[in-house]
Each structure stands twice: as structure tokens, then as C-alpha cells.
Amino acid sequence: MSEEVTTYKPTDVGFQAYHKLQELRETLEAAAISFIKGGRILREIFDQGLYAKEDGFYGWIRDNVGLGRSTINDMMNAHKRFGEILEADPQLKDVHPSKLRVLLPHVKDETPDEEKLELLYHAKELSVSDLKMLLKERAGKLTDLDQCTHTGWLEKVVKCSRCGKVLKHQRDNYEQIMQKGTAFNPNVTDALDPEACK
Predict the structure, then answer these.
(1) Are 95 and 86 in contact (CB under 8 A)?
(2) Dihedral sign of CA atoms 14, 16, 20, 22 in order
(3) Tell me, what's the pLDDT at 7?
(4) Which of 71, 84, 114, 198 is packed most tightly, with the most Cβ within 10 A?
(5) For position 183, what pLDDT does the model report?
């Protein structure tokens, strides 16, 4: 019995989508690697004094490359804290720079490599917002609002961008919630709300 093989023509949408996704993966991977390598190069320029002293390091980089102070610092710190780990583990080479920047305030130079590695794997798998929530949870700083499942009514407000006058105000699922007997209360926990939204 032979298996039927699906072949795509270069004009097929599936073929084009596959190649665009592959191109996107390669670009994102290159961005992550470039962020770390850029941090290494910036550190070398700084350490070796390879910049115009009258402009200062940050001014010289800004004028010649267009990077701002916070980006420069983030790139150098990302290389310092994660560079060796990312270069040693090919599975982590596509951790996006935005996620590395989210991790930086939570990882110090003295943070053990095992903890850095664990955080990098989380960064690889999670969205930026989920990664931020994980870091808040680890720091013990989650609030009730962070854990909201948005089961209360949703309010839509349409207002003029020039004068600020409210033109339309609508509460989605408000009637449904009121029929179940749950009034608006910002302190109501989500444990009580699901019944109201059925």
C-alpha cells in the first residue's frame, strides 16, 4: 500500500503560507540572536573605549546607530545575563528580545544559571502578557484584578476624540447578568460571577 503524498505548487496558498511562516521564524530567530550579539558588541565598544569621548558612549552609539540609552543598556544586560545560556542551548535561540527585556528586571547577575534557564524556557513558550503574569506570581505581587476572568459585564464607550463627549454607552451582557441577580460590584470574586453569565 502506498501513501498518497500531497504536493503543493508554488502558487498554492498552503505553499506560500508555509514559506512565509518559515521566513518569519528565521527572522525572529535572527532578531533574538542579533539582540544578544549586539549586546556583546556594545559591551566591547564600551570596555575598549572605541567611541568618541566628546560624544560619550551613549551619544556616540545614538548618533551612529540610532539606539537609545535604554535599548543599549537592555542589549548589554541581556548579553551579560543570558548570552552564554542562549548561545549554548539551540532550543532557546528564538526567544524574542521583547521577552528578554521583560525578564531583565527579574534576573540579576548573581541569579543562578538554573533559574535563568527556567525563565528562558518560560519566555520561549509563553506570550509576553503571560510571562509578565508568571513573573508577578513568582514575586508574590498578583492582585485580584490580575486574576480576573472578565465575567462581569463589558462596557463599551464611544466618545468624540476632540471634545471627549460620550456619544454612546453600551453594556454588553448586562441584562443577562442582572437576570441572574448579580449587581455590579468590583469586589465580587470570579467564583461568584460564572453563574451569572450562563
Answers:
(1) yes
(2) positive
(3) 59
(4) 71
(5) 47
Is residue 152 within 8 Å of residue 144, measured between CB atoms? no
Write phi, then psi, for 64 (nearest 5 degrees): -100, -25
Contact 104, 73 (CB under 8 A): no
**Residues contacting 194, CB < 8 A, separation 6+:** 149, 151
Backbone angles phi, psi at 185, to 5 degrees: -155, 115
Element (H, E) at 169: strand 166-172
Q: How far apart are the first and last CA of the chain?
A: 51
Alpha helix (H) residue ranges in 89-142: 97-103, 113-125, 128-138
Alpha carbon of 78 to those of 122, 143, 185: distances in Å?
16, 29, 43
CB 28 within 8 A of CB 65: no
pTM for this entry = 0.66
**35 contacts 75 by C-beta, under 8 angstroms:** yes
